[in-house]
Amino acid sequence: MLNELKSSITLLQSYLTWIVEIYSGGIVTFLLCLFFALFVLLEFYFPREELFIKQLQQSYRTNIELFAFNSIVMSLLAIPSLWILAEQYADKGLLSHISNSAWKAILSFLAMDLALYLLHKASHSFDYLWVFHKVHHNDPCLNVSTAFRAHVIEIIIINLMKAMLIVILGIQGGVMLVNEAIITFFTMLHHTNITFWGERFLGRVIITPYLHRVHHSTQRDEHDRNYGSVLSIWDCLFGTLAELKPAQIGIKGSSPQNLVNLIKYGFTMKHRSSAQTVNLDVMIAEAAYYKAEKRGFHPGNELKDWLEAKREIIRSVYDEKQAEDKLIETCDG
Predict the structure, then answer these.
(1) What is the reported pLDDT for 186?
(2) pLDDT digits (tens, 9 = 90+) for 223-255
(3) Where are the domains of the chain?
(4) Where does the pLDDT of residue 209 fall: very low under 50, low under 70, confident under 90, or very high at 90 and above?
(5) Higher pLDDT residue, 235 or 322?
């Protein structure tokens, strides 16, 4: 009888926990939707940059379609809920050795934000991750809806990383929910096309719109900066923080701006352009001229000067792998 009573109580507790989960999740979703609407209004009345209406409409439509598609696919794939995972491993991870719940929550948030920073940086460093991440960057009209512009494969990778972190650290369900809400809020904020008083001061601690705008620059030496999701301290710590105004937003070259072709685009390997758009022949000619000038324009070394200049310029413009490919391509030619 006692065992049956305990079983009933346990069942009741599980049911109540489920109700709280649904209720809390509903509140968080409502609040995030509210903030999304607020950011849309702020963009409309107080825009940082004036945007073309047709371009903005295309951006909103595509980003919302991508968000809906990703949500449906994630449901169909039946990926285990992060909440359920958190409840199963709450007392088994590294954080289980810490008794203070406040410190547990703070450390779990810092760990999650750092992990997102590192994954984001990796997405810019490795082609097999960039191929999906470039879908987020190809929006030429940066706005709050860009926060939800992501390829479904990238969403899966991010969630797998979060799941691993939950298991390793033993992050509790409630803490995980709060972390997700904070990260989503700030992701919407720093994509919003607004500016506000104190933005640069806040940028010393958190990623603000003016900092993240740099990250969406068409120039690689600019968009390989400011990787933080919430805190900018990681960029300060690892030397990736940049404060400047990008000349253009998006990625270089033509790319699709609709749902179906964007999904296909995520499976298309395309090397990014180098840090700057340059005319290699002009740069090589100038470098070769400088070398000739240093030796007093004595004849006989023109070809050697040209080849040395070409090798130096290619290595300075492209990253190591691309430079090697370019040099091999040149030799074959």
Answers:
(1) 96
(2) 999 999 999 999 999 999 999 888 889 988 878
(3) 2-265, 280-332
(4) very high
(5) 235
**How far is CA 1 from each of CA 8, 11, 15, 290, rounded to the nearest angstrom?**
11, 15, 21, 95
